[in-house]
Amino acid sequence: MKSDNIKVLLIDDDVDDFILTRELFSMVNLSNYTLDWAASYEEGLKIVECRKHDVCLVDYRLGERNGVDLIREARESRLTTPMILLTGQNDYDVDVEAMEAGATDFLVKDETSPARLERTIRYAVALNIERCRAEEALRAEREYFGHIISAAPTVIVGITPEGTTTFVNQAIRQVAGYEPDELIGRDWWRVLYPDEEYRQVERLLKDFEHGAVVNYEMELTTKNGEKRCVSWNSVNRLNEHNELVEIIGIGNDITEQVLSRRRLETTEDQLRQSQKLESVGMLAGGIAHDFNNLLTVITGYSELMLRRLDKVDPLARNVEEIKKAAERATSLTRQLLAFSRKQVLQPKVLDLNSVVANIEKMLGRLVGEDMELRTSPGAGLGQVKADPGQIEQVILNLVVNARDAMPKGGKITIETANVYLDNEYAREHIAIQPGWYAMLAVTDTGCGMDAETQKYIFEPFFTTKEQGKGTGLGLSTVYGIVKQSGGNIWAYSEVGVGTTFKIYLPLVNEQVSEPEPDAARPEKVVGTETILLAEDEEMVRNLARESLKMHGYTVLTAANAGEALLICQQHVGTIHLLMTDVVMPRMSGKELAEQLLRLRPETRVLYMSGYAADAIVHHGILDKDIAFIGKPFTPDALVLKVVEVLQQDRSSFSSL
Ligand code: ADP
Ligand code: MG
Questions:
Q1: Atom of ligand 1 nearest to the CA of 401
Q2: pLDDT tens, residue by residue, 104-120
Q3: Which ligand gives the minimal distance to the CA of 478?
Q4: Full-model pTM
Q5: Which domains does the chain show, CATH number per domain?
Q6: Which residues of 319-331 are buried (b: 16+ CB within 10 A; e: fewer)?
Q7: Separation of 445 CA from ligand 2 center, angstroms?
Q8: Residue ID of nearest Cα to ligand 1 atom 4
Q9: Ligand with the closest atom to the CA of 335
Q10: Residue of the nearest CA to atom 16 in ligand 1?
């Protein structure tokens, strides 16, 4: 549009008016204007539609119709050409109507001077140029924001109060798998929150009544049926009557955060639990260690005394009672040690199926008639490295618990399988390395446990059983053994349904160990060898010396490593065996053995300890070629062990 030549269209069915108007134009600088004429309403509208003119002059009287109608019709057809209505005098009502219909201005015919005509036209044209610019600016701005919204990584959606999607940006494709076009015009809520999830929506819509929502987490269903968690913020668009016309929702996909938050919560919980068990374990281990020395003495002297007393002597019965009590205490201490993972394990490569098969008969007798005990051994089960006696203990404890949980009878299943624990599982369970495991599960159909009980079951002395029935040491022993064997244990339980304990032991790639021959009886043992006994605990030292002397051994005793070395230098004959405590002040049993073997390389070594001391065991596992006897020991067991060590083939005996 050139401002120096303005194209004017006159719509007027009166030829005289056209001549008059042309005359008016001739009085202004005509070269600035081109004047065209349309002689009817229809013709006028048709020419306007061509949008070739900068301004229209529309006469009010147009045959049957009038100029105001024409202007209205043009505006309804989105024709924006400025339109000036030509009216007669005192047609005030018409002028108002015309402006409402979209006229740009009006001119009173008989009063219009050439200057007035020109001014009105120029003003209308200028106004139109201004309006076009503003519209263009608005369009550009819309486009700009449109780009931002479309490219935003968060979902931005407009929803009517009835639920219809008015717009949604591209981000919805990432989050829900729908193209924006697949959602626009459809019910937002019904599409993304089908079935029972719609209940969340009903709750949300209630909240909308109180205004916008902030960080509202909802789980939507994607096009291919997955669930994603989205956090929503909303802005409500209201009309002038304060009524809701549109909800603008801004949604962030927080599925990953929610998952890792949940994972963190469970692993934190597990960490707290295991730390607690760890510290209780240290306490228990310390007590058990001290008790072991005392119990060795009590049982040992009871045994020695019984040998000297006549069977009918009334004192013999008393000593028998002392011995029995001490044995019970010993078994408690052993369980505490197991829990604190301080017992000495003698692991072998084994397969869990044969351990289960070995004790199946015994378990059957244990559970009673009204219970079904079923085993379901996994085919091709891999091998694990564990102490078979201890694993038996684990199974036994779990089965006893299962039995106790089913006073009215039920079913116990022992199941094994190879399982691969993947990264996902490892993330949700602390202390699990991804990999292959042998799983052993004991399942019952008993009373189950609530969440609160489950928190404490592995703690020593935690029991829900009536007094005298439970010690609360069963599961703590299990826990300790499993952990010390490098495995893990988890409980799954539901009140009234039953419980499953699952144990995972890492698979190993080694040959199954040969079973060992049973030990002989000690009565016939007649010892001839010389034994150097190093033990700082006097009572234990005396007991061991007496036990060995009774069988004919020559016993040299030392209260510490220094004394032992001195004896070793001064003694003229052979010293066949060094029997030493592992933990002694100043110099450990292992250091003593090393020094002594330099002086007398032919001497054999037997360690004793009530404790898995790091000197000879690593993470509770005994080094393979080391001879060892755990405290508390009975005199018989001690003698048997001494015989075994002294008889061992020299070639298989390593000097540490
Ligand atoms: P105890 O059997 O002496 O009570 P445990 O350490 O073996 O001690 O078990 C601790 C507690 O764990 C039990 O008292 C019982 O409340 C709960 N529990 C263990 N196993 C089961 C099971 N299979 N079903 C239900 N509760 C069990
Ligand atoms: Mg128990």
A1: 20
A2: 999 988 888 888 998 99
A3: 1
A4: 0.55
A5: 6-139 (3.40.50.2300), 152-253 (3.30.450.20), 268-339 (1.10.287), 348-508 (3.30.565.10), 530-646 (3.40.50.2300)
A6: beeebeebbebbe
A7: 16
A8: 463
A9: 1
A10: 464
